[in-house]
Amino acid sequence: MSAVRAVPPATEPDGPARVERRAWVEQVMGMPISVHARGDGARDAATADAVAELFEDLRAADARFSTYREDSEIRRLQRGELTLDDSSAEMREVERLCRTARERTAGSFDAWSAHEGTPGVFDPTGLVKTWAVTRAARRLDPLEHLAFAVGAGGDVLLRPGTEGHTWSVGIEDPQDRRRVIASVPISSGGIATSGVAARGSHIVDPRNGRSATDLLSATVIGPSLLWADIFATASVALGLDAIGWVETLHGTSGLLVLADGTVHRWQNEA
Questions:
Q1: Total Cβ atoms within 10 A of residue 120
Q2: pTM of the entire structure?
């Protein structure tokens, strides 16, 4: 669900000197994916090349994991034309992550119970996007002096660069996506939101196999974009039980928007 966006501050922190910046947006994995760079060299050819490689990696992940492409590896696996043992290293890595996510969330994130009426079918879509973004963002590692924000469908991976830039991230109101219900400063890590605003009630509660409706959205901020995404999805699946559960997620913060509009915020020490 698209529910957050990264924006630079309205004014530069160090006086009148303007900070070099550039942004790229491409349609990949069925959504706009953006890369924002700030700092000296943001407009250099080396930066553009690294971003181009990032997008190539995301297109490759889409070709492998898209459930909308009948020739993708995940669809072949789901149809039984391919076994997990014969699958790619990337597929096996994602499957292991899904098993770990199921264990760490006590079953509330379950890639084998991702859709109503199809229990047992493996669908890692719930974490593939942020897994792919995190993996592709390694292309930016040589440019450690630059600050980056990589946004994918509302989930954002952030890093501060050597200047320690802080990004301001707005969290959309799931009841009115034209409104921002909170803005948070983040320098490094990830922020992810799951909920009903963009795709309706699409997250299944594995405890009963039905779509979860008690939360409109869950936003999680933490050091890992992948795990922020997993925890956000698990929170929506848990519904009202998420209010107590998120308090156990060390090193995270965020907010839950309940079906009646009530907002629950938390901030846990690492």
A1: 6
A2: 0.92
pLDDT tens digits for 21-76?
Answer: 999 999 999 999 999 999 999 999 999 999 999 999 999 999 999 999 999 999 99
The answer to whether 212 and 242 have CB atoms below 8 angstroms apart is no
With a CB cutoff of 8 Å and minimum separation 6, the contacts of 234 are 101, 105, 108, 109, 242, 245
pLDDT tens for each residue of 215-255: 999 999 999 999 999 999 999 999 999 999 999 999 999 99
